[in-house]
Amino acid sequence: MPDLKTGLRDSASAFGLTTAEFDEVVLRLGREPNAVEAGVFGALWSEHCGYKNSRPLLRQLPTQGPAVLQGPGENAGVVDIGEGLGVAFKMESHNHPSAVEPVQGAATGVGGILRDIFAMGARPFAVLDSLRFGELTSPRSRHLLSGVVAGIASYGNAVGVPTVGGEVEVNACFEENPLVNVMALGLLRHSDLQRGTVGEVGNRLLYVGSRTGRDGLGGAVFASADLSVASEADRPAVQVGDPFMEKSLLEACLEAYARDLVAGVQDMGAAGLASSVAEMAHRAGKGVDLDLDAVPRREAGMTPLEVMLSESQERMMLTARPGREEELLALFAHYGLEAAWVGVVRDHGELRLLVGGDVVAAMPVAALNQPPEYVREGREDDIVVAARQRDLAEFPAVDDPAGALLTLLAAPTIASKEPVYRRYDHQVMTNTVVLPGAADAAVMRVKGTGLGVAATVDCNSRYVYLSPRLGAAHAVAEAARNLSCVGAEPLGVTDNLNFGNPTDPGVYHQLSEAVQGIREACLALGTPVTGGNVSLYNQYVEGDVTRAVHPTPTIGMVGVLRDVSHRATQGLKRRGDVLLLLGAGAPSLGASELLFRHHGVEAGTPPELDLRAEAAVQRVVRRLIAGGACDTAHDVSTGGLAVCLAEMAMTGGMGLTASAPAMTGHEAGRDVALFGESSARIVVAVVPEDVKTVLDACREDGVPAIRLGASAGDRFRLVVQGREDSAIDVAVEEMLAAWRATFEGALG
User: Can you tell me the distance from the alpha carbon of 621 to that of 585, in angstroms, rounded to the nearest whole number?
Assistant: First the structure.
């Protein structure tokens, strides 16, 4: 960390501040800051903590809804699932740390999001991950994949929280800058909801957990800058996790809440002590005197700034309930956890740092938590415009539809992720009733009730790259569709906005348009945003060349099943079941996986998105599942109808014979019918006796329904109506071999 005595303005960047921001700090303080104050302001005004480029955009998102118990502004959002219960959920990123130290980067990402959940008073019961890497032919990408998976597995398995679902997307743009987004869910009773506050004047703050060291130092600033070849030197900014300490901390905190010993709680995440205490004080509108001498340390000679900005893991800050301080201290001692009184709540409105009884820094809490905000001018990149407007008719139809299907099944984004999730303990806690890979969303039961909770994470980054607003809306629609396909009613969203450098007009255009797309889809589908994370500066700088990742606004969504015994999965279950295609979404090859994997291009406009049609088909499918008429459903998304049906056959272990609706008006109409991607389309499989029930339900809601065929035998046969040259006829075992090989090879 910088140790500067004079000329701080000239070295503002060393603290993560621009010169203009340094001048703003001077204005807010009424004087020039010292090095400690400049460092704390720099961390809390970083994009990672302060959202200075994104907050004006995020205010446009809908955050209210009948199920929302806690919206943005706390450690996590909370939605009501009925029977006096709520689910706390949030998603965050650990992209930059995972790029330079994949195992610890991913592991501590899991640890951090779990602390956000139990800081709300909830017991974590599930984790999902959303991962993006470069092409798996690259040794670096295979190294990052292996390390990230190992990190997630080692932490989640040790804490005893199952990793129940997720996604992996592969594209060369993520080669240097992978995306590691982790979502966690926790269960709580409404009355157990906790908040991050210091409470009233005179309250005492208790530090509990691991000692403070130099690991993770400057992590918030590190996450708010571009990656480059020099980023290897930032390994000290990557934290080191201890999941066994986290487990003790989790159990101790939950017991403290149950005994009403705590008036407020906050985990120490990005910017460590600085952000946790400043945020708690700001929510209460109070000040805090923080005694840095009392902070437990594991390294000698740490400066005040190092103590404040360390991101050592497994640490919590709690406000003791007045009069219960000794009980709280005794509880943590019982769990073998070190705890120390480090602060007192004051009415002066400042964060004052004391060393040896002397004030070494004094900063207005409001100023720390209200960084400058930037509304920038966005401009779409000409390269993206040209790619979107490219005439797709120039690409010839595939010669061999069966071969094209096998190629798509082996594509990393579609291929089986079993080699990934089998490294995770996804059944610990014995709540997981739909296992990874079995359905479009994970489903967990709520013991002692008939309820189920479903969760998913979704984003097609190519869609967002080619059309940010439409692509982001697609991410919301697909997440809701995936929940509906297991029978869950969508309740709320947590988002993780992964973009490049916002000072680039092209990136800012992507970000602002994507937020608008999320807003439109969330309003149409009734899924308010309860919180999330913004991760910018996801790009790699090498000399004069800057390579940004595809814009990736990952959507995490939670839903409820009123009766968890009435749920659906994607695999075919009985021979002779009738396959029906529900919905009116028009398939398109624009931005498709077929264009990318078969023709090697990312081009065209993503499929059209009719949000009314989307809501209608989802409503019908949920009603059919709840009523017991349907236990098999799968949405048509990446890879189109052929891939959708192939996945149903492979996960069910049986074949099918089907005829796809013919497409007209395009030279490659056969390819559109087989591999065209769309919204608002879901395939269901039902026993023949329930076909009328399905058709009646569709007619009632104005949802088109087409009979495709039936499950049968051990071969997959799919033709396009009127196109005998379109036949795909392959053994299910042959498809399985292609589908399973990709990640088996990548992970060894």
Answer: 15
User: Which residues does residue 581 pair with via DSSP β-bridges, in sequence order?
Assistant: 683, 706
Is the pLDDT at 684 greater than 50, yes or no?
yes
**Full DSSP string of 224-265:** TS-EEGGGGGGGGGS----HHHHHHHHHHHHHHHHTT-EEEE
**566 is an active site residue:** no
Helix (H, G, I), strand (E, B) or coil at 206: strand
Answer yes or no: are the C-beta atoms of 606 and 478 closer than 8 Å.
no
3-state secondary structure of 726: strand
| Three-state secondary structure of 510-533 | HHHHHHHHHHHHHHHHCCCEEEEE
The C-alpha atoms of residue 51 and residue 223 are separated, in whole angstroms, by 12
Model confidence over 343-385: pLDDT tens digits? 999 999 999 999 999 999 999 999 999 999 999 999 999 999 9
C-alpha 667: how far from chain center? 39
Number of other CB atoms surrounding residue 479 within 10 Å: 29
Q: What is the largest CA-CA distance in the chain?
A: 86
Structure tokens at 516: 């608008």
* SS3 assignment, position 266: strand
pLDDT at 409 over 60: yes
The two structure tokens encoding residue 257:
């809440």
Residue whose tokens read 């998603």: 91
DSSP state of 588: B
Question: 533: exposed, middle or buried (C-beta count within 10 Å: 0-12, 13-18, 19+)?
Answer: buried
Of the CA atoms within 13 Å of residue 672, those in its CB half-sphere come to 20
Distance CA 287, CA 267 (A): 18
Element (H, E) at 140: helix 139-159
β-pairing verdict for 656-660 and 715-720: parallel
User: Would you call 94 a catalytic residue per the annotation?
Assistant: yes
Residue 595 CA to residue 606 CA, distance in Å, equals 12
Per mean pLDDT, which range of 34-48, 222-236, 413-427, 660-674 is the poorest? 222-236
Q: What is the 3-state secondary structure (H, E, C) of 37-100?
A: HHHHHHHHCCHHHHCCCCHHHHCCCCCCCCCEEECECECCEEEEEECCEEEEEEEEECHHHHHH
Closest to 671 measured CA to CA, from 742, 730, 599: 599
DSSP letter assigned to residue 595: I
**Residue 401 and residue 670 in contact, taking contact as beta carbons nearer than 8 Å:** yes
User: Which of the following is catalytic: 94, 282, 474, 566?
Assistant: 94
- In angstroms, the CA 116 to CA 90 distance is 8
Contacts (Cβ under 8 Å, ≥6 apart) of 422: none
Q: Give dist(CA 375, CA 54) in Å, integer.
A: 8
Residue type, 696: D
